[in-house]
Input
Amino acid sequence: MPVEYSVAEAKKGSQKAFKKLFDDNVNIIYRFLYQFSQNPDQLQEWTQRAFIKAFENIKSFEGNSKFSTWLIKIGINEMKSDFARLKDKRTVFLEDEQYDSAVSLEEEFEWKQDMKWLLAELDEFKRAVFILYEVEGYSHSEIAEILNISEAFSRTSLCRVKNQLKEKWIKSRGRYD
Output
């Protein structure tokens, strides 16, 4: 069943269609939110609330973007509301990923450790732009929609974040090329 069909059917009240949307998107939103907290209970809560709000508001989804884009936007809002309410900043860790076997284990370990602390030092907005583009593969127009910013600001922010990460990484390595 294509996503468009699932959304159309979910708008008509089909539980089966919404279950399909859930199954197709639960890992996407969970993986994205994982970049902001490693607490499984918190992640499940944000994911569940995002889907509940999506279900309650499915009729307002206009289809101008992918369903996953709309869902991530809802998830970010749930996360932000908790952060604002609790004023609790969480440590960020990149999820373990498989890397090219050409990279030595030592280099892989160093990269993972460096990226963990480098990303943890970014504020939530910068981290979100970087992760949405570089890790999740969203376009700047999709990021703009998710974060309620302009596409140009998304591009500029990503460029600045990359430069900031590069600069910090070079300084941490004692390189000043």
